[in-house]
Amino acid sequence: MALGKRKPKHDELFIATANLVTGPGHPFYTKLNEVLAEAGFDDFVERLCAEYYKEGGRPGIPPGVYFRMLFIGYFEGLDSQRGIAWRCADSLALRTFMGIALTEDTPVHASMTIIRQRLPESVFDKVFVFVLSLLQDQGLLRGKAVAIDATKTAATAAKK
Q1: Rounded to whole angstroms, how far apart are CA atoms 65 and 45?
Q2: 35, part of any domain
Q3: Which of 46, 43, 35 is nearest to 131 (CA)?
Q4: Each residue of 39-49: pLDDT tens digit?
Q5: How many domains does the chain fold into?
Q6: Closest CA to 89 of 98, 76, 79, 77
Q7: Apex CA 75: angle with CA 73 and CA 81, to 5°?
Q8: Residue 158 lies in a domain
Q9: How far apart are CA 109 and CA 74, in angstroms?
């Protein structure tokens, strides 16, 4: 067997999106999208967020896409909006999960910041309770008991 050598690649200038290789997507996100679609998630969050969006002007991130991006951040262990936006732009499977075509731009982190500041905490609570109860009803969650110890202790860092 001869030793193969890496050859420099010269990408084509234009490629039809129909010719791009696509996989079946990520099984977790595919199943989650099925569950969310069956429960009418997008309609639910659009009704919940409607009063915080104004008519006219530049279109914002649809609430369903925004909350999916937050889910991605949680599931992928990303703690910054910049990281979430980059990951969503980079992954074909995540684009499919969010419903964004290859030819469309993904939302940027600055838009995520504006929406986060616009929506009150109660909206986030309602969305996450809705999703968690939905997943619980589908048998996709296993609950665990969690305890928090809130004992106050004096700090002794300044003592010699």
Answers
A1: 10
A2: yes
A3: 35
A4: 999 999 999 99
A5: 1
A6: 98
A7: 5
A8: no
A9: 15
| Cα–Cα distance for residue pair 144/108, rounded to 1 Å | 35
By CB atoms closer than 10 A (0-12, 13-18, 19+), residue 88 is buried
CA count, 13 A, side-chain hemisphere, 64: 17
Residue labelled with tokens 């500041």? 117
Calculate the dihedral angle through the C-alpha atoms of 146, 152, 157, 160, rounding to the nearest 10 degrees.
-130
**What is the DSSP secondary structure assignment for residue 5, as one 8-state letter?**
-
pTM of the predicted protein model: 0.76
> Crossing angle for the helix pair 63-76 and 41-49, nearest 10 degrees?
110
Ramachandran quadrant class, 148 (left: phi over 0; alpha: psi -120 to 50; beta: rest): beta
Residue 141 backbone dihedrals phi, psi, to 5 degrees: -120, 145
Range of the domain at 95: 24-137
Per-residue pLDDT tens digits for 136-151: 888 877 767 667 777 7
Tokens of 156: 């002794």
DSSP H stretches of helix in 53-154? 63-76, 81-90, 92-98, 109-118, 121-137
